[in-house]
Amino acid sequence: ARAYPGQGRNMGVLETVAVFDFKPEISVLAEKEPDSNQQQPVEVQHGNAANPLAFADTQAGSTRDIEFTIVNSGLLPLALTDQDGSSGVKYAVLGGPQASQFQLISQPSTGTLQPGETTSFRLRFKPTVDGPMLADVTILSNDSDEATFKVHVSGEAYPGPGARDEQWQPSAGYTTKALVDSAVPAFVNALAVRDVEAQRGVL
Q1: Is the full-model pTM beyond 0.85?
Q2: C or N terminus of the chain, fewer CB within 10 Å?
Q3: To which H or E segment does residue 187 belong?
């Protein structure tokens, strides 16, 4: 701030000087899921691999989607980088350990955002097996301090209908073959008794 004295003893002018940083600035927001208690979109923390954005628990064989919004919160145009260059435009690229269990089902519709403008993309969690999953989405731009913006996501999948329970074990002292071997003779014996009683007219 700057102060200028006035003509009188109690007069003067106080001037506040504001400094603006004229540059593009990328921000990414994640929408809330339909069954989530989240009330507002969440701002995604760039490169936060230790605390990824989590999808709600999902049954293997089903899907969940989250829409992400890219915002230019700066004062100059934000230019997204096409990371494909061959078969089509890809401003967002999927990667990570379990990338095959996720799918980018839509891309940002534009590569240039004026200050305050937005564009979005949608990510799907589509687990085919149960267990924890990790992936990330990379966005490149002309943001001076976040030129490579990584969105880290996670998901937990549980077994779907008819899935085999790999944790099940037979009772102690028995094997699956032993259980079958003990059940078959008893069943055959029961049929023989029933046949004899039928011949005697008991049934």
Answers
A1: no
A2: N
A3: helix 176-199
